[in-house]
Design goal:
Bound molecules: zinc ion
Low-confidence stretches: none
Helix content: 10-25%
Largest sheet: 2 strands, antiparallel
Number of domains: 1
Distance between the termini: 41 Å
Strand content: 25-35%
Length: about 60
Amino acid sequence: MKEFRCGHCRALLFKAAGNPSCAIEIKCRRCGTLTHLRPPEPAPERHERADHEAQHVVRGSL
Ligand SMILES: [Zn+2]
C-alpha cells in the first residue's frame, strides 16, 4: 500500500495500492491544505537501485 500524505503537515490523506490513474484533489482534514495528485509521469524513479549498490559495498574487505 502506498501512503499519500499532506505536503504541509504530513498527515495521512489516504492509502492506495498504486499511483492514481487520474488527477486527484484532496483537502487535508488537519490543516486544510489542498493537495493535488497527478497520474504517474514518465520520469524514472529507481528505488531498487539503492538495494543493488548496498550489496556492492560489502566487497573489498579482503
Ligand atoms: Zn495537512
